[in-house]
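Collaborator request, handled under Task 6.
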Amino acid sequence: MRRREFVAGMAVSAIGAFAARAQSMPVIGFLSARSPVESAGLLAALRRGLAESGSVEDQTVKIEYRWALGDYERLPAMASELVNRKVALLVTVGGEAAVRAAIAATKTISIVGIFADDPVASGLVASLNLPGGNTTGVFNFNPTLEPKRVGLLHELVPQAATLGVLVNPNYPPAASQLKAVQEAARSIGMGTVALRASNDGDIDSVFAAAIREGIRVLVVTSDPFFNTRSEKLVALAARHVVPIVYPFREYVSAGGLISYGVDLGAMYHQVGLYAGQVLKGIKPADLPIVQPIKFELAINLKTARALGLTIPTALLASADEVIE
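Structure tokens returned to the collaborator:
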């Protein structure tokens, strides 16, 4: 056999072996309400968790990605599409709507997800310790931190009498989020105005309306739709010189004033760990729902100066991250 023919034959064999291995890999169906660009760091954390459980993307497992880009109405069809692909596992992140869509789409395929609402109270799992069924994951409960954010903003701008609450009516926990903010504001003598937005046009309109009505401080509620528009929200805050408290550190990294919330990277890492364990044969029913133990306070001093605000020394000392 000539050398050229031998080399060509070896190449064909290698390609065939790679294709056969790829076809035999289990496939994870990944469903997110967010976008790939602003989720890049979170995806890296999820992949680290997978690797620590023995599953490496494109080496031992394939991942099919579906991104709703903040449009929750797309999630049910995306979940059904992944179920029809007969994936080995569904990973659902980026908010309550994603995990609910997956649970509605299948009762047999294992699901590892992130819950924003209490999964027991909402009837999605039997208990936190023994979830039962085909679903487990992480209980985010970031939406329940809204009162803490209200207190932080009041500490920064104590003279503000009315608080604007940016909330997405299409997000499942929206009503409870709004109620929590209203009650927290009322307890410190502040009024509230609900600013409802579920698309880009709404965001522009409610910001303009808030300025016209003299609302000078805002809370952005925890919602994947707003996460996908973080740069837009930060830019509007800078343009209108409005102090805003955000639910995640990523907003502050993008130029936002202050945030308080769970460590999302740690949560995605845990989802990756659980996904790898499920691929090894552990049933979701036997994996307890994990609750976060780390919360992050981030402050952007450059933004504070631009807004003419002085950050109290005690608040700076308690911050996990201060951006100069």
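The cover message to the collaborator said: "The radius of gyration is 22 Å. Residues 11-20 have pLDDT under 50 and may be disordered. Please let us know whether this matches your experimental observations."
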